[in-house]
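Message: Just now I want nothing more than another pair of eyes on a protein record. I am handing you a single protein, as its sequence and its fold in token form. As I understand it, each token names a local backbone shape. Take your time, and here it is.
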Amino acid sequence: GTGYIIYDPSHTMCVFLANPDGPRTPEGQPRGEPGSSMDSPAAYCGRWHINPVGPMVIHETELDVFPQHMGQDRGRKFNREGDMLFLRPAITTPGIVDYYLQFQRVSDNK
């Protein structure tokens, strides 16, 4: 998949992830629920803060493409290496050993 994650200094964040090669649904058909795959887009926005106990960022979901997830906090373990940011879920999903999301900082140069 591919996507963007934006962290603002005012502690507002937004993320959009999608699989450009994912399955297409006919016009008017509902999308699938979010799962462990990138078959359907994931997008949410809200506030963020760093957990002082460990290297974890908390996303406080205010808006989500799936309304049932609004109001939920999403903890992400993080690691930074140069201009790369790696995020892992704080809680793993049964049956999934491990995965991470990798983001590269967008250059300020135009």
About this structure: The beta strands are 2-7, 12-18, 42-51, 56-64, 73-81, 84-89, 101-104. The radius of gyration is 15 Å.
